[in-house]
Specification:
single chain, 24% strand, alpha/beta
């Protein structure tokens, strides 16, 4: 089989596009990534900048009212309470390569030109062989990119200075300490704090400590206009909630003597209409006892215009018989209101 370099490029591009439309793979280690899904849905753009993405925030008001009569002297305030939250943007890369040697092992020869001249006709079976080889490599790049982006959005940035800080950089376990978050000291600005309640006791499920705490916390998360719409939990946290619900009994319309088979499972848990989703990434990060309640309006990625999942087709270097494909993402993750988000855990 003889393919031109241009044909290799066309197959690779087609496979990448196909993956976005209908990603059908049989990998044994794929996991749901609800945080990544929501973040990419909420992504917005910005035109670029020197180093950071900035957001103006405000939590204190100076102006107040004053009663007066006749010719009483009244006062005037000069508010100066705006603060600037600062978030870095970074350049993220994922790439694959295919060598002429491994193509030859698959029975595929390369006409080393990018013009496409002298193209030979190929049978459909030959094109499938090439597509299958590229499909495996592209699938690895796409899933690897998703896994990397997902973990980056979850972590706090300490894992790599060249990656953006994720949600755990501003949804902190202890929001009261003297910690700078987005350039603002949370200890001196009580309004610039997320909600947090850790190590909830669950030894007696019938006490319903988790459900009761979430009931009161939900009220506080909405206190300043927050609207929680994304709840992500580790397996232990969800199981603790299920035990609390079961402690009060399972109910069916037909009762236990129904002629139909009795479904012993619990329906997926919702709270105020919001689904509690299991995020396997929390288990992977040893956070199976944690739950994050988020308002996705206040936490979202911002990518430089035209730089979100941008495809690259680097030319083959003259000293190597290797073909490359890459994706890049350039942006940051911003939080515009911390007190609309919370983190909770069981003991």
């Amino acid at each position: 089989m003889a393919f031109t370099a241009q044909e290799i490029e066309n197959v690779a591009n087609a496979v990448i596009d196909f993956h976005y439309l209908t990603p059908k793979v049989r990998s044994q280690t794929l996991q749901d990534k609800p945080l990544l899904k929501k973040m990419m849905e909420k992504e917005t753009t910005f035109p670029g900048g020197k180093e950071n993405i900035t957001v103006r925030v405000k939590g204190i008001y100076t102006t107040t009212i004053q009663g007066f009569e006749h010719n009483d002297t009244v006062g005037y305030a000069n508010p100066a309470n705006i603060k600037e939250a600062v978030y870095p943007w970074k350049l993220i890369h994922a790439g694959i390569e295919v060598t002429m040697h491994e193509l030859l092992k698959s029975g595929i020869s390369i006409t080393d030109t990018t013009t496409g001249e002298g193209e030979t006709r190929h049978s459909n079976s030959e094109k499938v062989v090439l597509a299958d080889l590229m499909k495996d490599k592209v699938e690895d790049m796409m899933e690897g990119t998703d896994r990397g982006m997902n973990l980056m959005f979850w972590k706090d940035g300490s894992q790599d200075a060249k990656q953006i800080p994720g949600i755990r950089s501003f949804v902190l376990n202890d929001p009261t300490t003297a910690t700078i978050v987005g350039g603002i000291d949370q200890s001196n600005n009580t309004w610039w704090r997320n909600r947090a309640s850790l190590s909830l006791v669950t030894t007696t499920p019938s006490d319903q400590n988790v459900v009761t705490k979430l009931q009161s916390e939900w009220r506080q998360l909405r206190r300043y206009g927050g609207k929680p719409d994304l709840v992500l939990c580790g397996s232990d946290f969800i199981e603790a909630m299920e035990k609390e619900l079961r402690a009060k009994g399972n109910y069916t319309l037909e009762g236990w003597t129904s002629e139909k088979a009795t479904d012993a499972s619990l329906a997926d848990i919702r709270f105020k209409g919001v689904m509690f989703q299991y995020d396997p990434s929390l288990d992977d990060m040893s956070l199976s006892k944690y739950c994050y309640v988020l308002d996705s309006r206040t936490i979202h990625p911002k990518a430089i215009e035209g730089e979100s999942m941008k495809k690259h087709n680097p030319a083959r270097p003259e000293s190597k018989y290797v073909f490359y494909r890459a994706l890049t993402w350039v942006g940051g993750l911003v939080c515009t209101q911390r007190n609309a988000n919370g983190v909770y855990s069981i003991a």
